[in-house]
Amino acid sequence: MEKIKKLILENKAWASSKIQLDEKYFENMAEDQNPEYLWIGCADSRVPPSEITNTDPGEMFVHRNIANLVVHTDMNLLSVLSYAVEHLKVRHIIVCGHYNCGGVKAAMSPKSLGMLNNWVRNIKDVYSVNKSEIDLIKSNVDQVNRLVELNVIDQIKNLAHTSIIQQAWKEQKQPYIHGMVYDLKTGILKNMQSLGPDYAVDEAHRYEF
Questions:
Q1: I need a surface site. Which of 14, 104, 105, 144 has the fewest CB within 10 A?
Q2: Closest C-alpha to 44, from 190, 182, 143
Q3: 146 catalytic residue (yes or no)
Q4: Nearest alpha-carbon partner for 107 in 123, 128, 126
Q5: Catalytic site residue 98?
Q6: Annotation says 161 is catalytic
Q7: pLDDT higher than threshold 90 for residue 1
Q8: Which strands form 37-42's sheet, in the order they lie side by side?
Q9: Residues 126, 104 contacting (CB under 8 angstroms)
Q10: Residue 191 has pLDDT above 90, yes or no
């Protein structure tokens, strides 16, 4: 309970510091949100989106899960995506992975993880498709980190394959989608690939509106 009490005290100190800078800070914040970005990131506690991008509350709409996956049957993700794109009109979507990701390491291991097997199987699919490339890499650490990069690239393509994104591209000419990787050792983001309204979705995944 002492840990929880500490969190509450820290919250009060943080709120007080904001009011000292701007007495109407929370009044203005409570009125509405108009974020520029949707962040789809890993749930890893070492990768806090607002802190590593130095953005303020209200600038970024956030969804997080294990290994930053975009799964077409994940209604939570799709609901967040729909709200962000269709109602908040975000201009940019960032899918952010990070090196030394536990979810990616789990996908590369034959060890059973119980219920988590069903989730990391999506990463296993990425691993399977790219196994010949990854097997050429000598270091286990570098193998994991390369799969982190490939996974991010695969997830932004999964976004492009949704009807939500394709309809927004047709009607709004946005959002732009960016696949990024965060380096835990340096604190630096690396942009792997970006997709926009001119991206040519393959015929099998293309919708007509």
A1: 14
A2: 182
A3: no
A4: 123
A5: yes
A6: no
A7: no
A8: 60-65, 37-42, 92-98, 176-183, 188-195
A9: no
A10: yes
Q: Determine whether 91 is an active site residue.
A: no
pTM over 0.85: yes
Give the mean model confidence (pLDDT) for residues 161-190.
Answer: 98
**98/152 Cα distance (integer angstroms):** 9
Rounded Cα distance between 187 and 31, Å, is: 33
- The pair of structure tokens assigned to 145 is 């980190």
Catalytic one of 42, 63, 96, 146 = 42
Cα–Cα separations (whole angstroms), residue 146 to 142, 150, 190: 6, 6, 13
Distance CA 157, CA 56 (A): 28
Q: Which of 96, 101, 146, 178 is catalytic?
A: 101
CA distance 95 to 121: 19
Instruction: Spot the catalytic one: 44, 63, 96, 154.
Output: 44
What domains can be seen in the chain, in order of their start residue?
1-31 (no CATH), 36-197 (3.40.1050.10)
Reported as half-sphere exposure (CB side, CA atoms, 13 A), residue 164 has a value of 24
CA 74 to chain CA centroid, Å, is: 14
Q: Tell me which of 63, 96, 98, 146 is the catalytic residue.
A: 98
96 carries an active-site annotation: no
Assess contact for 67 and 118: CB atoms under 8 A: no
